[in-house]
């Protein structure tokens, strides 16, 4: 590699990675609002243009449902022979029904008609609002995350510290960046990025499932939001540290037991060896080899690395969002309007009673409601008086990771996790492993 090309690749690697980190990962204080640069300005845009955006998202939901239904009935060549259209419109009758229900919910909410239990602020209206926001945030995140994932940082960290993640989390060295990105960035974007890297041959079936189910949290910005609503912003740094430490423990256990441990270590083509060629280090220091690996990756970066993300961006908005709205609304209705939540939260209530946590019944219901949506624990727990209890609920709402309104449906829809049963098991396992450690840390911290 000549000196000019090496300089160009160094600029791409260092400049691109730093720009991506600056825009996507690092939270800043914007006049009291703590968020990443990307999210802060996108949220301003969403707030300013909320009304037209709501109409556009509703229209896309309806077109998604009608397009999928038309494709299933007519099977037109102009859809089936187009890779992009086939990817976002061709699906099974089950998911078509989900799209139709999701689109119907959005129409009812937008025009404020229909049963209150569907369109209320706690159910369909909440999901439609979330869909409007995420339809802007996630595609932009997917696009700009390319700077971090494809300019050489993955290869650099993979060679430099990847040896740590392999024995601890059972993923290859290449997974180091994906794990960090999934932990501090939006989980939905991380799952789609992981699926994309799996399809490119970087990860095995098991590795993709591990990253998607064990590390796809709701981003630093979301933790800030939860802390703010719960009135525990003065404990934010402590909360984030506890979430990280307990998250490492839970992941270490989760990757070694079913269902994730039973996933095959095979790549997208079914082989046991990655189709992505990996250069071996023969005579360089680890740092020098990591840097050179990054430069080789940066040498391949072009505009195509960004334009290729359009498929996944449209897939998220048109394919997944109606399903997320459907499943999320149904989960919220069950949580808010039936006694099922009280029944399933009873084991958690017993644990909280045994450890002398205040308001155990209300806290347990708030914790278990996280399976429906990760903001539901905040809604149900914000009136709890004890700081300790609110701290525990806040930590658990992040650590559970899997929730029906988004991550659970995303994991199953993209086949990162095989089926709903496995998603449910992951949620239960993470909840019961994480809870004792979160309670222990809360007690050590002496919160009251």
Automatic annotation (TrEMBL):
It comes from the Bacteria. The chain crosses the membrane at residues 12-33, 53-73, 94-113, 125-144, 208-230, 236-255, 313-337, 391-411, 423-445. Keywords: Membrane, Transmembrane, Transmembrane helix. This is Arginine transporter. It comes from Erysipelothrix inopinata.
């Amino acid at each position: 590699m000549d000196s000019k090309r090496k300089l160009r690749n160094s600029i791409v690697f260092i400049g691109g990675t730093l720009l991506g980190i600056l825009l996507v990962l690092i939270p800043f204080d914007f006049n009291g609002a703590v968020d990443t640069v990307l999210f802060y300005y996108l949220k301003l845009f969403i707030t300013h243009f909320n009304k037209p955006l709501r109409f556009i998202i509703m229209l896309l939901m309806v077109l998604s449902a009608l397009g999928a239904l038309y494709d299933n009935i007519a099977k037109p060549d102009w859809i089936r022979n187009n890779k992009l259209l086939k990817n976002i419109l061709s699906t099974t009758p089950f998911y078509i029904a989900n799209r139709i229900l999701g689109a119907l919910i959005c129409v009812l909410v937008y025009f404020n008609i229909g049963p209150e239990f569907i369109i209320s602020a706690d159910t369909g209206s909440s999901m439609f609002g979330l869909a409007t926001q995420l339809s802007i945030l996630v595609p932009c995140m997917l696009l700009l995350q390319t700077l971090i994932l494809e300019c050489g940082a993955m290869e650099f960290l993979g060679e430099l510290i990847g040896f740590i993640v392999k024995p601890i989390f059972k993923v290859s060295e290449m997974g180091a960046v994906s794990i960090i990105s999934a932990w501090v960035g939006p989980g939905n974007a991380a799952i789609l990025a992981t699926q994309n890297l799996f399809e490119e041959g970087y990860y095995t079936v098991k590795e993709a499932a591990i990253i998607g189910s064990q590390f796809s949290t709701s981003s630093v910005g979301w933790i800030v939001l939860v802390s703010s609503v719960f009135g525990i912003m003065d404990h934010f740094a402590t909360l984030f540290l506890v979430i990280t430490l307990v998250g490492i423990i839970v992941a270490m256990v989760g990757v070694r037991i079913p269902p994730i441990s039973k996933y095959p270590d095979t790549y997208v083509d079914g082989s046991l060896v990655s189709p992505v060629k990996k250069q071996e280090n023969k005579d360089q220091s680890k740092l020098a080899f990591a840097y050179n690996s990054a430069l080789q990756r940066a040498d391949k970066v072009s505009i195509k690395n960004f334009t290729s993300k359009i498929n996944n961006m449209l897939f998220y908005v048109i394919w997944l969002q109606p399903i997320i709205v459907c499943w999320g609304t149904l989960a919220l209705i069950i949580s808010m309007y039936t006694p099922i939540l009280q029944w399933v939260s009873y084991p958690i209530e017993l644990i909280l009673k045994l450890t002398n946590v205040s308001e155990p019944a209300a806290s347990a219901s708030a914790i278990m409601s996280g399976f429906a949506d990760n903001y539901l624990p905040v809604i149900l727990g914000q009136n709890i008086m004890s700081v300790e209890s609110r701290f525990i609920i806040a930590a658990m709402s992040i650590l559970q990771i899997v929730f029906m309104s988004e991550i659970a449906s995303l994991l199953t829809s993209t086949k990162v996790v095989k089926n709903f049963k496995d998603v449910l098991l992951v949620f239960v396992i993470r909840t019961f492993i994480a809870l004792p450690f979160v309670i222990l840390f809360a007690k050590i911290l002496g919160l009251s």
